[in-house]
Amino acid sequence: MRKFFLALMIGLMIIPTSTQAYGVFWYDMNAGLEQWKKVVIFPLANAWARDKFLIDRSETSLLYWENKHLMERFEKKIRNLHTIRLSPDIREKGEILIDKYGVLLQKYPSERARAEAVFEQTGADMYILPTFKQNKVQVDISPRVEVDLELKSWTEEKNGPDGDKKYDEKKWTEHHVIPETKVYLHIMELEFDGYDTEANKVLTFTDARREYGVDEKHQFRNITKYIRKDFGDIKSRKRADKGKAGELTIGFQNLKAPKNLGLDEFALRGIYFATQVEALDNLDGVRVLIDGNAPTTPNYYVTGMINRWEMKSTWHAPYATVSSSLEKTEKSKWTDKNGKEHEKKTYYYKDKITDHLGGWSFWFYAGAQLQLIDARTGAAVLSKNYLNGNDKIMDAYRADLDSFYKDVKAYLKTH
């Protein structure tokens, strides 16, 4: 494909897609979520009005679908978990639950009062409040651009009397206009907060999408897929048997971050959680002492400083690409001098122009100085700065961790 870049020849930024697509997730590893059997899931709300639930009783509405889809993510995909749905008119086993638990949708003076009511009404182990931190459409303008493009057409013949050949090539210049066009950037950020029966926050998950050419349903489906996956990993005890082998032990100390990065308590908890999970997944033959399972002082500690945590946006001007297009194919028979029949195929090609509208791209950077500390001496035996970018902030940080734990493994092999 031949690319013709417009608007002062600004290059196209090629952005790889995320293969992990992690949100910022944390749960209290000492709370016992693995054994909990019953969870109440509240209807969606906006983060700035959490007690005003977003409810629409029409089965054809988007809100009805979102509440129903969220419940089904948990109910159908997570084993050993009973889900109590509070969205009105969404049936569970033939029963409309709003009549039974509607009192839980009222406004409570405190989270503890809500927790007490949930336990009294349902006997559930925990409840989850899903909220939109953002959910909007930003209208951008892709400006009008004009360009002269070189095009061509030609014909190719395969298996003809003269073998394979290319002929009848024509070239011309075409003045092409990409008109001014509105483009729609869909922005969604969802947050899930889980509480136990005493109103202790035991789980958090946040994830965001910024995309052109998609709708709200698409973004909601993608985000809820990953909260379901993370919660499902807890219930399935995916990592229950990891980090138990080996005489060498590694524990963790708190990670720090300067205030200007804007990381709140639960973002830091999510970062700390990822640091432990990646150790479990990457360090074979080492006993990884996550929170609550450290019976003794480990041989080493992992600690560090988060020094970069930001999103960068870049505007890309509209551009056009020229690519060959097969317009028509013909087949015909011919006979050689020995009387043998053959089939000739003739292909007619002509270049086509494809418009690519202008828009924003978003890239996240996570940087950290990560250290491996000798617990006996308190000295840093490994200390290195890591910086990675990705289209999701936690994937960028997990790339930092992946590099760090490779360095840890290399160090441990030689010491």
What does this structure look like?
This protein has helices at residues 62-77, 98-101, 111-122, 216-235, 265-282, 393-413; strands spanning 2-4, 24-27, 38-41, 45-46, 82-85, 91-92, 95-96, 126-142, 145-160, 163-178, 181-196, 201-212, 249-256, 287-288, 300-316, 319-335, 341-356, 359-374, 380-390. With 415 residues, it is α/β, with parallel strands linked by helices. The strands form four sheets. Strands 2, 3, 4, 5, 8, 11 and 12 form a seven-stranded mixed beta sheet that branches. Strands 1-16-17-9-10 form a five-stranded antiparallel beta sheet, with no helix packed on it. The protein has a five-stranded mixed beta sheet with strand order 14-13-15-18-19, covered by helices on one side. Helix 1 runs parallel beside helix 4 (216-235) and helix 5 crosses helix 6 (393-413). The two termini are 52 Å apart.
What's the layout of helices and strands?
Blueprint: E1 2-4, E2 24-27, E3 38-41, E4 45-46, H1 62-77, E5 82-85, E6 91-92, E7 95-96, H2 98-101, H3 111-122, E8 126-142, E9 145-160, E10 163-178, E11 181-196, E12 201-212, H4 216-235, E13 249-256, H5 265-282, E14 287-288, E15 300-316, E16 319-335, E17 341-356, E18 359-374, E19 380-390, H6 393-413
Parallel strand pairs: 3-5, 3-8, 4-8, 13-14, 13-15
Antiparallel strand pairs: 1-16, 2-12, 6-7, 8-11, 9-10, 9-17, 11-12, 15-18, 16-17, 18-19
Helix pairs in contact: 1-4, 5-6
